[in-house]
């Protein structure tokens, strides 16, 4: 297994269980395998997962073909198909968990499952999104949203702090001021549009389309709208965590929400390079500064 913290911890627990069963365990770190370059070793890992993904993709392809070829589908048929997609998503997540080097086949299967989910989703009414904007145009803005933030508002606050301004002023109030940009409120440029939650609207408006953000948008959408459009395996766990914070103050919820979405984005992103790791260390230091969080019940 790769030399990662989670892999090391798994081996440590396994070694402990072996010793508790009166066995012997030796945990070793290998710098390199004789005769194998890093690229060759990664290729072997990816080839092993490729076979797993291929089996899953075959079942997904059969389902997709059935949906495309079916001229009339009953609500019961769609419900059954959604259950199957949910199972396929869970299986994909299990394979991805041990796909340590993010083989390209996994992304192809995920793309097919996304197409199936789109085909099964209710039609979106046509609606005009806010005009495209650049993060720099909003860098010095003050923001406001409703009190008691849940998944959509917390994810938007994270997006603002990570992609627009780490020290943004975000206020929680039912009454926006004239100099504030409202989000997830009845008035303001960033809110629900048709079947899009506010997080999705902000991604589209600011042109933020990296794969990890796209998956996060599906998770936020399903927790926020519960319309069955996306059967993401992460939804129930994240929703349970968010419910556990319902009694906390708004600013406290935001601090925890930022940490939650930081972790989710990191988990969904490709394996970081050393240079990216240095950037992440810099970001971690910036995250310690929570300036700009304010609460106003007025």
List keywords for this structure.
mainly alpha; four-stranded parallel beta sheet; 5% strand; 298 residues; 4 strands; 2 domains; 10 helices
Question: What this model shows, in words?
Answer:
The protein is mainly alpha-helical and 298 residues long. It has two domains: 32-120; 135-295, no CATH class. The protein is 56% helix and 5% strand. The protein contains ten helices and four strands, in the order H-H-H-H-E-H-E-E-H-H-H-H-H-E. It has helices at 5-20, 38-69, 75-97, 104-120, 151-163, 198-206, 211-225, 235-244, 250-268, 274-287, and strands spanning 142-145, 169-172, 180-182, 293-295. The protein has a four-stranded parallel sheet, covered by helices on one side. Helix 3 runs antiparallel to helix 4, helix 5 packs across helix 9 (250-268) and helix 7 (211-225) packs across helix 8. The longest helix has 32 residues, at 38-69. 24% of the residues are buried. The model is unreliable at 273-292 (pLDDT under 50).
Radius of gyration: 22 Å
State the order of secondary-structure elements, H for helix, E for strand. HHHHEHEEHHHHHE
Beta-strand fraction estimate: under 5%
Shape: globular
- Main structural class: mainly alpha
First and last CA, distance: 54 Å
Question: What is the helical fraction, as a range of percent?
Answer: 55-70%
Q: Count every beta strand, where a strand is a DSSP E run of 2 or more residues.
A: 4
